[in-house]
Each structure stands twice: as structure tokens, then as C-alpha cells.
């Protein structure tokens, strides 16, 4: 067991002292810190602005040419025009000139009660000048039409758009509220497995390609080597993951005033969810790390790692997709099945736990299956690692493994 | 210690590559494992190191089943390899720790071997920045740093220049003198001749010759004589022998301008000599032939 500690320490050091690891962690931490501090920075800049005169130039101005005098109560029209100010024009030419010279953002020419023309310099996709005026002019028309019939318009509006109050009383899980952090945790896990899986596979393959493996295998037990290697890599990944999440949490709370609780739905992760995530996430992570480690032992050059890892990566991406799709409907059959298969249970069961309702025995079965399979995969990957030690040349095909294991 | 390998067989798939090898090694005497490329030397060594499992046969040390992990073994694999991106000192310490040595013990051993092999100045350099010869020396340091009781070296001299070979020769000699059990494989016969009292010659997975080198040499040189006549070409000597002496001797071969002949029996030597004096031949040399290991090797393994 002493050797296992030696291998584990060596492997952890290998990652933690690795420049790529250090730089990528630093970049992630910086990005998150800066990103979450943006509202505070903006607020700080805004408060500086308040001392100077707020400029009115930014408010867009639109022209109105009403030769027929259709609008009697211009203030009411202006009230309902949310886009900016309306300035009256008495002749068409000066309105068009002002639009051309961009003094005006646009102009409206009223032809009759239900017909107007929008004058604009460049018609852009995001231009809302037409909609805004349409709304204001429609309301203006409705008010007058109702009033002509002797009906008070505000009363009609009260009937058509009643002030409904509502609130949701969730008896089970509030999937909608859990969605964000569930998704973020899952995506983090996905990213971590893909990245560290490849790193572990490459580390194993490089020991083969630089021929250190023969010396290692004759120095200590292969189980220690592969377990140390995989757990070392897994540990480094977790350190990075926890560091990023913790930085996010801390920086968010430091900037809590500026955010005013806007991101609480992301960062306020209940501790039981975090516990479940850690349990399933770590097991699943180690499960895949062992598979990637064994894949690394099957090739003899680091260049071959990618090709060899592709089938597993595809399976893993499918697992991720099933889980993400399952977030929409946690009672789906596919998600339920996936939550028992060790390849997918760590993610699928987490989705069900976080967003749906699961019976305790279901969790126990799924977790036990995952633990047993992780141990099995660990044991099997040690076998493969041992077998792969002295197999150089072409990558070993999966179907040949039993035969080779037997012949050694 | 007394290591006894009996009748080991090994197959890869359907192909048997070792067909029952048997040999012995004792502490204080080195065994030279000889053979051409692909003869099965490395496979044999890997079976000794438990990297491969033999399909048949036994390996015993002092009468008990040999388990390599229970001993400190200085193993130099044929495929040299260390971590190219790690510092020399760090990886030596790591490899030593894997073999169960304590850190303080290792520190001392590592520094000793780095000094001894003349690579102390590269202690804190990454391995990949060293020349190939120096990398080889670091590899040797990793082999000896656990102060092994058993030393197994697979082609230890390949890649070393004459000066470094000399250093390694001294180290091996020292290890043999301090009663270590040494096995090393090589196809460079001169090195084997220098150190090994015992040899095992393998060809195509079969044991061709095994035993004490001197005995083998004597056996091979038995009844063979070197014969040379002044101012006569070997071909002329051969013709002469064939014509006048074929009842006493058998022509063996021409080697380095000398004719090697084989006496048909013990008595033939005296008859041959008296007939030579009768014929008044100007004999320049008539001596017992001592075959070199290379001669034995080539003769046993063939072309």
C-alpha cells in the first residue's frame, strides 16, 4: 500500500505542477471572477456618471406629420409611445430632411385614421419604430372609438387586461428553479470527464511510448500503478472543479449587492443536491477515468489515444444528451433506464434526484450498481494495463483482449 | 543464492517461442545469456521478471518458487525508458520508492550512483535534455540504486561508448565480486567472455549450449590444432594435408590465415608430428586450438 501512496502522490504532483493545468485553472478562475464582477464595475462607472449632466441626446426622437389633424390629443399618443419622443412637423419636406440627416430616428405621416406611413433612413432588422408607433396609434384609435360610443376606455382595458395575481405552490421538486444549477453541474462534470479522461489516457500511453512502463510494472503492483494514475488524475480534475465553483460562489457573494440576487438560481445550490452530485459525480468520473486509463494502455503511441478513445467518447456524449433531454421530463422511460446503467446512471440519476422524485430504493440500487461496476472496471483496467505493458505496435482491438489476456 | 530455470516454454498465440529452456545461475558468478536477435533472450528475461508467464516449466531460487517482487532486483530492460520530462533526481527517487526504499536511504544511493556514473551535474535537469549516452547512464543508476541482490541486464552495453562501457564493466565486475547473482544478455561476445563463468546459448527458443564457459571452450577445442607452415598459403597447406595426412586428421577450417585441423584420435597427434618431421616441412606453428566464444557461437548457431 505504501507504493500506492507513492504513485498517487507522484501522479497528483504531475498534474498540479503541470503548467497547462496551472494556467488553465488560473484562466478559468480569472474569467469567473471578472465575469461575476461586471455588475459591480458597471454600477461603479454609473455612479461616476451621475455627477455629470445626464445627456438627453440619447433619447430617440421621431417626427409626426399630421396634415389632416387626425390626432387631437397628442399627449395621449406620446404617453403610449415607449420608444422616445414625438416631435410634430408641419411640412413633409423638413421631416424627410431631418430623417435623412439623422436628426430624427424616423417619422410618421398620418394619411387617415387607419393608415399611416413610416419614414426611415435605413430599414434595419432591429428597428422597432414601426411596432412602437403601431401600438401607440392603435391605443389612441381604440380610446377614441370607444369614447365615440360613450364607453370609458379605461374600463374596457380593465376588463380585457385584468390584473391577475398568481403564485405556484410546488409540492414536489421545483424543476424550473433547479434547471440552471443542475445543468451547470452536469456540464461541468461532462467537461471534466472528457478533458481528464483524455489526459489520463495520454499519460498512460506516454508511459508506454517512452517505455517507462516496463520498469514501473517490474517495480510495483500494476493495480497500484493504474489506481494511482487514475485517482491522481481524477483528484486533479476535482481540485480544478471545486476551485472554479468555489471562486464563483465567493465572487458572487462579494458582488451580491450589484447582482441583487439575480443569479441566486445558479449559486444557491442546496447542500443535499451538492452531496448527491458529489457522490454520483465522483463515482461516474472515476468509472470513466478507469476506462480511459485502460484505453491508454491499449495503444503504444500517444497519437493513437484519440482514435482509441472515440467509441467511449461517443457513448459518453450520448449519455450526456440523454440526461440533458431528460431534464425536460424526469419521468421519461429512457432517463429511468439510463439511471440504472453504470455508464449513464451517475448523470441520469443525478438529473432525477435534482429535478424529479425518486424513491430511496431506486437510488440505492443505482448507487450500488455504480459502486460495484466502478470497482470491476478498476480491476479490469489493471488487467488491461498489465496486458498492454509489452504490447507494442498496432493498437489492440477490443475483440482480441480476451484472447491476449488468456495467452499471457 | 542459486537460481534454477527448468524447462520453460512460452507461446504467443499459437506460436511457441521458447521450447523448454533450462539453466542455472549462482551468486558470485555471472551468467551470459547469448543468442542472435530474436532468439528468445528478452522473452526469457521477461519471464524471469514475471512480466510474462511461462506456459510450462519452473523457476526456483534456493529451492523455492522464485517471486521477483520479493527481492531487490536491478533490472535493466532492453527497452530503455524513463520519464523524459521529469528531472533526473526526482524520477530516480520515485522509482526507488516504488521498490520500497525509504527516502533518506534513496537520497544517499541516488547521489552515490549519479556520482559514480558521472552524471551528477545533470541531477536537476530534465532527462530529455541529456545526451543519449547520459540518459543511458541515468538508466543504469536507476538499475543499481536499490542495491540489488539480483541483477538482470538486457543488452547493457548497447548505446555506450568505449569509455562508458569501461565504467559499466567495472561496476558489473564489482557486483560479481560482492556475490551478487548476475544475469546479462548480449550478442556482443567479448563482454560475455570477460565476465561470465557460465553461459547459456539460445537459438530460436532452444537451448543450444549451457554450462561453464571454460569447460565449453575446452570441449569445443578438443583435438583441434592450429597448423601453419612458413611461406605457404593456407590453401596449399590444405591441399598438402588432404593428400598426405587424411588418415590421421580431418581438415576443419581456415581461420585468420591459419588452418585448423581435427585429430581423429589422441594417438594421431604423435603420428602426425613424426610424419611432419619425416617430410621436413618448415612448421611455423602447431598448437592447441582455443576457440573464442564467437567461434563457438557461430559454429553452434550457424549462419
Question: How would you characterize the overall build of this protein?
Answer:
By secondary structure, chain A is mostly helical. Chain A has 2 domains: 2-33 and 175-407, no CATH class; 61-160, D-Maltodextrin-Binding Protein, domain 2, CATH 3.40.190. Helices cover 68% and strands 5% of the residues of chain A. Chain A is built from 17 helices and 4 strands. Chain A has helices at 2-16, 19-49, 74-79, 92-100, 129-148, 153-160, 175-209, 213-219, 222-254, 256-259, 264-267, 271-298, 305-326, 333-338, 342-355, 360-388, 401-407; strands at 61-65, 85-89, 106-112, 115-119. In chain A, a hairpin with a 2-residue loop joins strand 3 and strand 4. The two termini of chain A are 25 Å apart. The model of chain A has no long low-confidence stretch (mean pLDDT 86). The radius of gyration of chain B is 24 Å and the shape is elongated. Chain B contains 10 helices and 14 strands. In chain B, helix 2 (88-98) crosses helix 3. Chain B starts with a strand and ends with a helix. With 303 residues, chain B is of the alpha/beta class. The longest helix of chain B has 16 residues, at 162-177. The interface between A and B is medium-sized, with 23 and 27 residues.
The average pLDDT score of chain A comes to: 86
Order of helices and strands of chain A: HHEHEHEEHHHHHHHHHHHHH
Query: What's the multimeric state?
Result: heterodimer
Number of strands of chain B: 14
Q: How would the global form of chain A be characterised?
A: elongated
What's the domain count of chain A? Answer: 2
Work out the number of β strands of chain A. Answer: 4
Query: Quick check: average pLDDT of chain B?
Result: 88
Helical segment count of chain A: 17
The CA-CA distance between the termini of chain B, in Å, is: 37 Å
Helix content range of the residues of chain A, please?
55-70%
Order the strands across the largest sheet of chain B as they lie in space: 6-7-8-3-9-10
Terminal CA distance of chain A reads 25 Å
As for the number of domains of chain B, it is 2
Going across the major beta sheet of chain A, what is the strand order? Answer: 2-1-3-4
Radius of gyration of chain A: 32 Å
**Most residues in contact, chain pair and counts:** A-B, 23 and 27 residues
Amino acid at each position: 500500500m505504501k507504493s500506492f501512496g507513492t504513485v498517487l502522490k507522484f501522479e497528483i504532483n504531475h498534474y498540479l505542477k503541470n503548467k497547462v493545468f496551472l494556467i488553465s485553472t488560473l484562466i478559468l478562475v480569472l474569467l469567473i471572477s471578472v465575469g461575476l464582477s461586471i455588475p459591480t464595475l458597471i454600477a461603479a462607472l454609473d455612479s461616476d456618471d451621475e455627477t455629470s449632466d445626464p445627456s438627453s441626446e440619447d433619447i430617440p426622437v421621431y417626427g409626426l406629420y399630421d396634415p389632416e389633424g387626425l390626432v387631437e390629443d397628442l399627449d395621449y399618443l406620446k404617453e403610449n409611445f415607449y420608444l422616445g419622443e414625438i416631435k410634430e412637423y408641419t411640412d413633409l419636406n423638413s421631416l424627410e430632411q431631418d430623417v435623412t440627416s439623422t436628426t430624427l430616428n424616423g417619422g410618421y405621416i398620418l394619411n387617415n385614421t387607419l393608415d399611416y406611413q413610416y419614414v426611415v433612413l435605413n430599414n434595419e432588422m432591429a428597428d422597432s419604430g414601426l411596432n412602437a408607433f403601431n401600438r401607440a396609434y392603435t391605443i389612441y384609435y381604440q380610446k377614441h372609438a370607444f369614447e365615440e360610443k360613450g364607453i370609458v376606455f379605461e374600463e374596457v382595458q380593465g376588463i380585457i387586461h385584468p390584473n391577475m395575481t398568481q403564485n405556484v405552490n410546488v409540492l414536489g421538486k421545483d424543476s424550473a428553479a433547479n434547471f440552471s444549477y443542475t445543468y451547470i453541474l452536469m456540464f461541468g462534470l461532462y467537461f471534466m470527464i472528457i478533458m481528464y479522461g483524455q489526459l489520463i489516457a495520454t499519460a498512460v500511453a506516454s508511459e508506454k511510448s517512452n517505455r517507462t512502463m516496463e520498469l514501473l510494472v517490474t517495480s510495483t503492483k500494476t493495480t497500484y500503478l493504474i489506481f494511482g494514475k487514475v485517482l491522481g488524475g481524477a483528484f486533479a480534475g476535482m481540485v480544478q472543479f471545486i476551485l472554479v465553483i468555489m471562486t464563483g460562489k465567493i465572487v458572487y457573494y462579494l458582488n451580491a449587492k450589484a447582482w441583487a440576487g439575480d443569479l441566486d438560481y445558479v449559486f444557491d445550490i442546496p447542500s443535499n443536491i451538492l452531496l448527491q452530485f458529489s457522490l454520483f459525480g465522483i463515482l461516474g468520473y472515476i468509472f470513466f477515468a478507469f476506462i480511459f486509463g485502460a484505453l491508454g494502455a491499449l495503444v503504444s503511441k500517444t497519437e493513437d489515444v484519440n482514435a482509441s478513445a472515440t467509441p467511449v467518447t461517443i457513448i459518453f456524449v450520448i449519455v450526456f444528451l440523454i440526461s440533458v433531454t431528460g431534464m425536460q421530463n424526469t419521468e421519461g422511460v429512457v432517463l429511468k433506464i439510463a439511471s440504472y446503467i453504470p455508464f449513464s446512471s451517475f448523470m441520469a440519476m443525478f438529473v432525477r434526484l435534482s429535478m424529479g422524485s425518486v424513491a430511496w430504493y431506486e437510488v440505492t440500487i443505482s448507487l450500488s450498481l455504480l459502486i460495484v461496476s466502478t470497482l470491476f472496471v478498476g480491476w479490469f483496467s489493471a488487467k488491461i494495463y498489465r496486458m498492454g505493458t509489452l504490447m507494442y505496435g498496432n493498437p489492440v482491438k477490443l475483440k482480441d483482449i480476451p484472447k491476449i489476456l488468456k495467452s499471457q | 543464492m542459486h537460481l534454477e530455470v527448468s524447462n520453460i516454454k512460452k507461446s504467443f498465440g499459437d506460436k511457441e517461442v521458447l521450447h523448454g529452456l533450462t539453466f542455472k545461475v549462482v551468486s558470485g558468478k555471472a551468467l551470459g545469456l547469448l543468442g542472435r536477435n530474436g532468439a528468445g533472450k528478452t522473452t526469457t528475461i521477461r519471464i524471469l521478471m514475471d512480466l510474462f508467464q511461462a506456459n510450462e516449466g519452473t523457476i526456483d531460487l534456493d529451492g523455492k518458487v522464485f517471486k521477483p517482487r520479493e527481492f531487490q532486483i536491478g533490472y535493466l530492460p532492453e527497452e530503455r525508458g524513463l520519464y523524459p520530462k521529469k528531472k533526473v533526481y526526482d524520477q530516480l527517487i520515485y522509482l526507488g520508492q516504488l521498490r520500497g526504499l525509504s527516502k533518506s536511504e534513496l537520497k544517499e544511493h541516488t547521489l552515490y550512483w549519479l556520482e559514480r556514473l558521472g552524471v551528477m551535474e545533470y541531477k536537476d535537469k530534465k532527462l530529455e535534455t541529456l545526451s543519449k549516452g547520459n540518459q543511458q547512464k541515468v538508466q543504469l543508476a536507476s538499475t543499481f540504486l536499490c542495491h540489488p541482490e539480483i541483477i538482470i541486464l538486457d543488452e547493457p552495453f548497447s548505446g555506450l561508448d568505449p569509455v562508458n562501457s569501461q565504467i559499466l564493466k567495472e561496476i558489473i565486475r564489482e557486483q560479481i565480486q560482492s556475490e551478487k547473482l548476475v544475469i546479462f544478455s548480449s550478442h556482443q561476445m567479448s563482454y560475455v567472455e570477460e565476465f561470465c563463468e557460465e553461459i547459456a546459448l539460445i537459438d530460436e527458443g532452444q537451448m543450444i549450449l549451457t554450462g561453464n564457459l571454460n569447460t565449453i571452450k575446452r570441449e569445443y577445442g578438443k583435438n583441434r590444432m592450429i597448423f601453419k607452415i612458413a611461406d605457404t598459403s593456407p590453401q596449399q597447406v590444405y591441399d598438402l594435408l588432404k593428400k598426405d595426412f587424411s588418415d590421421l586428421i580431418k581438415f576443419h577450417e581456415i581461420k585468420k590465415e591459419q588452418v585448423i585441423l581435427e585429430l581423429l584420435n589422441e594417438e594421431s597427434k604423435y603420428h602426425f608430428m613424426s610424419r611432419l618431421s619425416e617430410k621436413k616441412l618448415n612448421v611455423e606453428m602447431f598448437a592447441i586450438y582455443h576457440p573464442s566464444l564467437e567461434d563457438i557461437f557461430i559454429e553452434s548457431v550457424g549462419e
